[in-house]
Amino acid sequence: MILIVINLIFFLIPTRAITETKKFIAIADAWIDGESPSTNYGNDPELKVGWANAEWKQALIRFDLSSKPANYYKAEIQFYCTLEDIFQLTIEVEELVGGYEWNENTVTWNSRPDLFDGWSITFITVSNNGFYKIDITDKFLFEDYDIWITPTETESILIASREDSPRSPRIVFFIEGSDLAIIPHKSQDLIYTNNVFNLLPNKNKFIRDSYQTLKAGGYLIIADEFSKVALPSEIDSDPAFRCGGISGAQSKDFIANICTNEGFKQKDFQIINQYEIEYNKVKFPLETGILVLQKQY
């Protein structure tokens, strides 16, 4: 598609957000059993967590995150649970922070971590067979990252171990990319986004990528919804507002300031429509607009 503006020909590049992932499979795991306190279960295809014969069963999992990405916007632990003839079981997932060292092939109940070595991440109620996900975006992720899974009730579940390749425990990092990543630097006259900019999890990165992709004097045009006041953070995850492109909306001045800091200059802003939305019985003013920015160098 070719767009002609003031007798100049610009190549129009539709853009969208792309989420890339980087996955780290567990490098070690084992379950420990109070019923057999000196036995090692480091090579089993399943990790038993629960209670049986008046003794607890717990699981240890280790990940090597030494090469984790620096620019992720979300990280989560994922592991596969199977119920053992029960309705549900609540488990606690902790991270080991006490410098405890354990070996998959030798760890036993007798050599398990001290209770004070674990910090709780969350509680999960397992009620169906399948993958369960835990958000750890805000956690400090050591290069050797260990989790400890303990039951809170007198029932048992099975967690797929790293030996079960399709369902092995993993930590997944979510990284934002865009279509611009495949376009050569300084090759385009115009980049145009239509009702997608607000949904980008990392707007600054997109603006930086746009700057690199554009020729000197090239244009970045953002056609989207702009807020006139701060919107509640709950709107960002509301499906109705995401579909309308309102989730993530910021003021025109806020967006223009980010672009200015990345080397753009605001050339124009056209208001197409002004309206209000209502959320929790409070009204918020917005405007549909087109923000035109030019690369300076």
Largest sheet: 11 strands, antiparallel
How many extended strands? Answer: 17
Helix content: under 10%
Mean pLDDT: 87
Structural category is: mainly beta
Q: How many helical elements?
A: 3
CATH class of the largest domain: Mainly Beta
What's the Cα radius of gyration? Answer: 25 Å
Beta-strand share of residues: over 45%
Number of domains: 2
Shape verdict = elongated
Termini gap: 26 Å
Topology as a string of helices (H) and strands (E)? EEEEEEEEEEEEEEHEHHEE
Keywords: Secreted, Signal
Subcellular location: Secreted
Main location: secreted
Pfam family, one: CBM96
Walk me through the structure.
The chain is mainly beta. It folds into 2 domains: 20-176, Jelly Rolls (Sandwich), CATH 2.60.120.230; 183-295, Rossmann fold. Helix content is 9%, strand content 51%. A hairpin with a 2-residue loop joins strand 1 and strand 2. It is elongated, with a radius of gyration of 25 Å. It starts with a strand and ends with a strand. Residues 1-12 have low confidence and may be disordered. InterPro entries: CBM96 (IPR055372), SAM-dependent_MTases_sf (IPR029063). Residues 21-168 form the Carbohydrate-binding module family domain. Keywords: Secreted, Signal. This is Carbohydrate-binding module family 96 domain-containing protein. Pfam families: CBM96.
Give a concise summary.
About 10% of the residues lie in helices and about 50% in strands. It contains three helices and 17 strands.
What labels would you give this structure?
297 residues, 2 domains, eleven-stranded antiparallel β-sheet, 17 strands, 51% strand, disordered N terminus
